[in-house]
Amino acid sequence: MVTVELDIFSGRPNPKWTLSEREVRQLAERIRADPSLLLPLDAETGGLGYRGFILNAEDTGSADDWKRLGLPSQVRLGGRFQPGAAESSSFLLHTAESARLDLKDPGPVLGVAERTIVETLSVPGFAPSYCTPAALSSDTDFSFWNGAAYQRYNNCYNFASNYRTNTFAQPGRAAGSMYTSIDCGSVGGAAERDGWQLTCRDDINYNVCLVIWPNFDYHWYRWCANNHWCHKPGQTAARNYDNSNNLITNPEAADRGGYTIFCGYYRGFGVVVS
């Protein structure tokens, strides 16, 4: 049995309802197709107001779709910072329409949640593109990168590759053919010569993306845990927030300063850079 909790209140208990077997099966299919929809219970998914859904699965002894997929007993889905889950969030919200909620007038509450879900889709750009299975490192523990002995010597390309070289790695240098200009084609092409690819790998993927400050510089982001994109601007510390101090859930919509051109997404794992 799966219970849905609409995480939206601050003082009062959140509205809850139970999914039907058919709704559990439909939700499980969505999660099977995109496991990144699920977030840990302590994931940052919004502030006051709509923060997504908390799913509680109770083991009733029968074999249901939730149990067959080995899904966790408590998990989060959706929220203001997870635009990629908007469609599944709408599905969950609509399951409340036929449920008996402990609210005198649930319409306005459900309406606020629905409007927020729609707003997450209206941010500039498109939802990030992911390949699964994905390799995810912590979105908060950057001790591997931020130590005094190596922070200055590793850059955004090192971080994207999850490969600390202490050489301020450059796209294409490991392959013997670096980029020749600061544009998507040249920098992206050099990264491809290092082993990054535009298509998904079958085994495991680091999901990274490239942006350009026209004619001056390039920058890379990498998808980390909790649906956050992380990066390391030059010699500074690795982080999970953008120029406006907002957690990065969509690098296409993040505040990137002068890096105004979004080139696209690349996939790789174990790519050697230098």
In short:
This protein has 274 residues and is of the alpha+beta class. The chain contains 6 helices and 9 strands.
User: Helix count, per DSSP?
Assistant: 6
Shape: elongated
Task: Kindly state the percentage of residues in helix.
Answer: 10-25%
The total of beta strands comes to 9
Largest sheet: 5 strands, antiparallel
- Bin the strand percentage: 15-25%
Strand order of the largest sheet: 2-1-4-5-3
Structural class: alpha+beta
Low-confidence stretches: none
- Give the terminus-to-terminus CA distance: 51 Å
What radius of gyration results from the CA coordinates? 21 Å
What string gives the helices and strands in order?
A: EEHEEHEHHHHEEEE
Mean model confidence by pLDDT = 89
Description of the molecule:
It contains 6 helices and 9 strands; from the N terminus they run ββαββαβααααββββ. The protein is α+β, with helices and mostly antiparallel strands. The chain has helices at 21-33, 65-68, 86-95, 106-121, 156-161, 184-194; strands at residues 2-6, 16-18, 38-39, 53-57, 74-77, 206-213, 217-223, 229-230, 261-268. Helix 3 (86-95) packs antiparallel against helix 4 (106-121). The protein is elongated, with a radius of gyration of 21 Å. Helices cover 22% and strands 16% of the residues. A 5-stranded antiparallel β-sheet has the order 2-1-4-5-3, covered by helices on one side. A 4-stranded antiparallel β-sheet has the order 8-7-6-9.
